[in-house]
Design goal:
- This protein has 411 residues and is an alpha+beta fold.
- 36% of the residues lie in helices and 20% in strands.
- The chain is built from twelve helices and 17 strands.
- Strands 1-2-4-3-5-17-6-16 form an eight-stranded mixed sheet. Strands 8, 10, 11, 13 and 14 form a five-stranded antiparallel sheet that branches.
- The longest helix is centred in the last third of the chain and has 22 residues.
- It is elongated and about 80 Å long.
Length: 411
């Protein structure tokens, strides 16, 4: 077993074939969840699964599970997977790599007549990206009970089409109740979507945890006035007060290295006129940390600063937390399986905490879970120019193969 390796050329060919569905002029992919293109992608992957001898199960939120039996099918399967829906300007590898790496593991086991004790399954989850329907990570979220099937079915896109309607339309409204599908362990391979591995010239990222995040909407209300006649000391400038808070968001993150993150990514200024003092500013705040206690400390410090700013400025300031995901530590056994496989294969490695959300977060609520990262060019993802080296993708898939074999056992 220690000499077993996947076929990197076959993995790359599968990735390039799937990338043709929804291909964009800049070399990326636009394959939004539950569109006709998503159906084509799903049909292609399911067809490949059937060709590899896998049995197919689809649940009521459209999650797909492709199963290779083991010698003891009473055991819960060792599952790997990710998603095949993309951003509107997505790349070839985000999500898709995790699904097709799982398929390549199966193809390799078939090719070498390897029988595992526990079954092996390859999953792909519905609407991970959340770019057409909200919330993100919808399929895995329903699966683990984070929100109801009814809530997911009722979600609408910009044209008023619902998830329930679109699942039925494309033929992926399955019968299995989400969450009734057993999982013994879960692994997800993914491009890093950040620059750390490439910067360190390291091949494999061992992922011990995913950062928690806290999102807010903040509104600062002042008074519009003419930019010329109004003296500086008599202004109620909502934008200037807002920028104090924005700078504090960054300062808070810098106080809690190495995993503190603070971002203001969306700003709306009213009336947004060159010669009018801004009367109202609405902006987003994104705080992240891998330590839940520190994330809560960041939250409290931000609220305290906003309150002081409200008192000092005399302006009305409201802040509402609109989303919260706690940090997700992965199971030590799965993390160790990834670490052991990486060492056995001789790849360079380092621990990398994920700053982005993944379906593995929700899978980890139900079963021991772990993730494997490989570098992506310049750390770029959610972009048509997203890229990764074939050798790195092959290495990550080899680590996945041996981590899954450790958990599933061989007959």
């Amino acid at each position: 077993m220690s000499e077993l390796r996947i076929n990197g050329e076959r993995l790359w060919a599968a990735l390039m074939e799937l990338a043709k569905i929804g291909a964009t002029p800049k070399g990326g992919v636009k394959r939004l969840a539950l569109t006709d293109l998503d159906k084509q992608g799903r049909d292609l992957v399911v067809g490949w699964g059937r060709e590899a001898g896998l049995s197919i199960t689809v649940d009521q939120i459209g999650n797909v599970f492709m199963r290779r039996d083991g010698s003891d099918n009473t055991l819960a399967p060792v599952v790997t997977g990710s998603h095949i829906d993309t951003q509107p300007t997505g790349g070839k590898f985000d999500g898709n790599y995790g699904v097709l790496a799982g398929l390549e593991v199966v193809r390799t086991l078939n090719e070498h007549n390897v029988t595992t004790v526990a079954p092996i399954e390859v999953a792909f989850w519905t609407n991970e990206e959340g770019s057409r329907f909200v919330p993100v990570m919808m399929g895995s979220g329903v699966f683990c009970g984070a929100f109801s099937l009814e809530t997911a079915y009722a979600a609408k896109d910009t044209e008023g089409k619902t998830v329930g309607e679109e699942l039925a339309r494309i033929g992926y409204l399955g019968e299995q109740v989400p969450g009734r599908h057993p999982i013994g362990a879960y692994f997800e391979t993914h491009i890093e979507q950040g620059p750390v591995l490439e910067d360190a010239d390291v091949v494999i990222g061992v992922v011990p945890a995913v950062m928690g995040l806290s999102w807010y909407d903040c509104v600062v209300s002042g008074m519009e006035a003419h930019a010329g006649p109004t003296p500086m000391g008599l202004r109620k400038d909502a934008l200037q007060v807002s920028t104090r808070i924005m700078q504090e968001v960054v300062a808070i993150a810098n106080r809690y290295p190495p995993y503190g993150r603070g971002t203001v990514g969306m700003v709306q200024v009213f009336p947004n006129s060159r010669n009018v003092i801004p009367g109202e500013v609405t902006f987003s705040i994104d705080l992240r940390n891998v330590n839940e206690a520190l994330l809560n400390t960041m939250h409290q410090e931000m609220l305290a600063f906003i309150e002081r700013t409200r008192v000092d400025s005399g302006l009305a300031i409201s802040v509402e937390r609109v989303s919260y995901y706690p940090p997700c530590p992965f199971h030590p056994d799965c993390v160790d399986a990834v670490r052991k496989a990486t060492a056995q294969l001789g790849y360079s490695s380092m621990d990398v905490v994920s700053g982005a959300g993944h379906d593995a977060i929700y899978a980890a609520r139900l079963a021991p879970s772990g993730m494997i990262f490989v570098p992506c060019k310049d750390g770029i993802s959610h972009n048509e120019i997203e890229d990764a080296k074939p050798a790195h993708l092959e290495a990550g898939c080899n680590v996945l193969l041996h981590a899954m074999l450790e958990r599933a056992g061989t007959a």
